[in-house]
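User: Let's play a game. I give you a shape written as tokens, and you guess the letters that built it. Ready? Here's round one.
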């Protein structure tokens, strides 16, 4: 029984649950979605909170440039390129047998400096916030200082007295571990069974304590939380509930707005922007979507993508059960090659805050993720990890069928769709070792050849 109903009863009251349980690729556009103005009221955070996060990242830029020389060209900002991908758009159209009007772009968070994934936004931001709070409270720093002074033995010795703990499927641990250890913190990362070996090796090279768990993400997080609670000098980074992580992700939107405008891409009600975001626990895509709605209002449409084996956000929002349900409760195994998305229970905070703001949800099979990985490598020479491809079929899913009456409800006429910009948020991959990347590509090529 799940929330008082059997799985059979759930399938009757919510027909798409049958497809999700059967691991079919599934699409749902949420009829409860409201205008940006109305939906943003559900989020207990404001534009001021997002601006404060942005200002904090500005303050840290001189420090980041000092400790991570690869960020000198961007003046200490951790930001990724935006790129048009017309060859991939053509390849997608022929793969799905569809005409794909508008233009497809990719946001290459896969190539964010320091940790090569979207977690270099939220994860690093929360570590910096913790460091700033501690340093200011202990008179080591004030808001007007040049933060490059934190790149010193004194500062590192100070931070060494404090600890950070986190549970992760890999990329969050990588971001927090590298950033935390660089500042001087003692960092412990609780890794779920999905975590790739190279991510654990890389962290240990940075002096991070890596605890390996045989279980999935939720259990790794629970163990991290339990250990940290016993130690007042330990800050637990709570991926399931953290508003700091969320705000760190949200800052991406204003920067994207500038990039689009520099690239000559116009966004308004008649030139909508569709953004396809891979979703794990929900903080990353949720934070980005929150920022996007603040930046573009009703002109942006956010759609979340998950693996067929881990549709936790889709299931949570569609059933209304949010974090009261896990995919395993419905017999879905949460085993996927998309390790960044291998989450069985969504963040309740994000699902509830965002439920009237995210237009839709869809699932992608692991085979399709691999096929798309090979296809974007062929078409554009871009190398991504499997999780990062979840957003790639989004345009085709949005244009293919409209059993939810979505396009009509949103007044997305053919004329407007001709003017649309579609953005695939590519969330990770540039740090994947070459041998592993070659194996990903061959696997995808084999699927394309079938
Ligand atoms: C973490 C992650 C995501 C999703 O972020 P959540 O906050 O877990 O929803 C997407 N792609 C990659 C590669 C990730 O590491």
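Assistant: Ready! My guess for every position:
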């Amino acid at each position: 029984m799940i929330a008082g109903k059997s799985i059979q009863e759930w399938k009757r009251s919510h027909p798409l649950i049958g497809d999700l349980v059967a691991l079919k690729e599934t699409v749902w556009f949420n009829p409860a979605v409201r205008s940006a103005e109305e939906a943003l009221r559900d989020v207990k955070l404001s534009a001021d909170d997002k601006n404060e996060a942005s200002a904090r990242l500005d303050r840290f830029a001189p420090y980041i440039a000092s400790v991570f020389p690869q960020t000198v060209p961007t003046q200490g900002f951790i930001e990724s390129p935006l790129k048009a991908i017309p060859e991939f758009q053509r390849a997608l159209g022929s793969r799905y047998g569809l005409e794909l009007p508008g233009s497809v772009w990719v946001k290459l968070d896969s190539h964010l400096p320091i940790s090569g994934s979207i977690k270099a936004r939220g994860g690093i931001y929360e570590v910096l916030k913790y460091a700033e709070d501690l340093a200011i409270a202990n008179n080591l720093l004030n808001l007007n200082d040049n933060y490059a002074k934190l790149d010193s033995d004194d500062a590192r010795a100070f931070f060494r007295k404090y600890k950070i703990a986190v549970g992760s499927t890999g990329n969050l641990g990588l971001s927090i571990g590298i950033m935390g250890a660089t500042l001087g913190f003692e960092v412990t990362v609780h890794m779920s069974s999905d975590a790739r070996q190279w991510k654990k090796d890389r962290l240990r090279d940075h002096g991070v304590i890596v605890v390996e768990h045989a279980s999935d993400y939720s259990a790794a997080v629970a163990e991290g939380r339990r250990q940290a609670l016993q130690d007042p000098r330990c800050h637990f980074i709570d991926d399931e509930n953290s508003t700091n992580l969320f705000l760190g992700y949200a800052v991406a939107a204003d920067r994207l707005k500038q990039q689009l405008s520099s690239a000559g891409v116009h966004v308004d009600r008649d030139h909508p922007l569709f953004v396809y975001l891979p979703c794990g626990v929900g903080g990353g895509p949720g934070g980005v979507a929150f920022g996007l709605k603040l930046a573009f209002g009703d002109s942006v449409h956010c759609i979340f993508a998950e693996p067929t084996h881990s549709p936790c956000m889709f299931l949570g929002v569609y059933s209304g059960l949010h974090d009261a349900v896990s995919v395993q409760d419905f017999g879905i195994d949460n085993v996927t090659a998309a390790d960044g998305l291998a989450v069985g229970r969504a963040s309740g905070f994000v699902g509830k805050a965002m439920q009237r703001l995210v237009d839709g949800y869809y699932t992608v099979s692991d085979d399709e993720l691999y096929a798309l990985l090979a296809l974007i490598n062929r078409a554009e020479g871009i190398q991504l990890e499997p999780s990062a491809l979840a957003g790639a079929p989004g345009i085709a899913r949005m244009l293919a069928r409209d059993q939810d009456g979505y396009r009509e409800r949103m007044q997305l006429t053919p004329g407007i769709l001709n003017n649309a910009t579609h953005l695939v948020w590519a969330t990770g991959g540039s740090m994947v070792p070459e041998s592993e990347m070659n194996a990903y590509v061959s696997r995808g090529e084999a699927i394309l050849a079938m």
